[in-house]
Amino acid sequence: MDWYSIRLRAAAGGPHEKGGRHISGAEDLVPETEIEDRLFYFWQKASNHEKGKWDFLQITVEKIDERVQEVSLLPVKLFYPATTVDARKLATELLGRNGITQRQINSAFQLLENPPQDIRGAWVVALDSNRVVRENVRATKFGWNKTTYQQLQEMLTCAGLINTRLSEALALASKVNACSGIVAELCWSDNPEYTTGYVASSRLGYCRLPNFKPIGKGGGRVFWIEKEEQIESVLHWLREVPCLIGGVPILQKEE
Ligand code: WAQ
Ligand code: MG
Q: Whose CA is nearest to atom 23 of ligand 1?
């Protein structure tokens, strides 16, 4: 079967590279028969956005020539912190199990909560040098194994969690954390009203944390890599290697 990568980006005040403010981004990897549906969905998503109205929108569709790899869906772990303080404590404990220090975690919280510039991708931070090695890195070329996606939707519906944001973030986290060199990920939305986020790693799974930020704050993603010298191979995986997320979905309530 042929696969197609679809990417969208939308901004207000001109294109991103001319100083436009990021409104919406999206990506998927689908067979030809689903392109039209996805285009319509992406269009709607960008055009009814909490962050405002776009005046620049770009959609890219590319046929994939490389072999598409299968990557396992991360297990979903549901935590229920009641406050932002609790959520951050939990996140710090979880990320600590991956060897990330409290200081490194706090710096990442700062980046997300008060981003120093308008961003549309992740900060890649190296743990050996403690530096932001790249900014605005977008993971692309990932989509769903259809059976896995349907099973996940049934599971989420049963848990009262039907939520496209969760599925989209879970697919992204599954590709990102399958990368050799990536230690863990931190994320909460840049949409001012959406306060749920997660920490993820191949060992932790997708740890979902409500109340991760105060309402009204910024957001983003941090991908921690082990060594700065791994950056090129990490970028290749994130941007170039086409992946389908497959396997059996797992949903666990943690507290
Ligand atoms: N690659 C890298 N970074 C990205 C990508 C990508 N493909 N897509 C988004 N980002 C960055 C970018 O800086 C955005 O501003 C930021 O992440 C947040 O993106 O209920 O909705 O799409 O379990 O707003 C997580 C919790 C929600 C879901 C995350 O992120 C749940 C969310 P958003
Ligand atoms: Mg957003």
A: 166
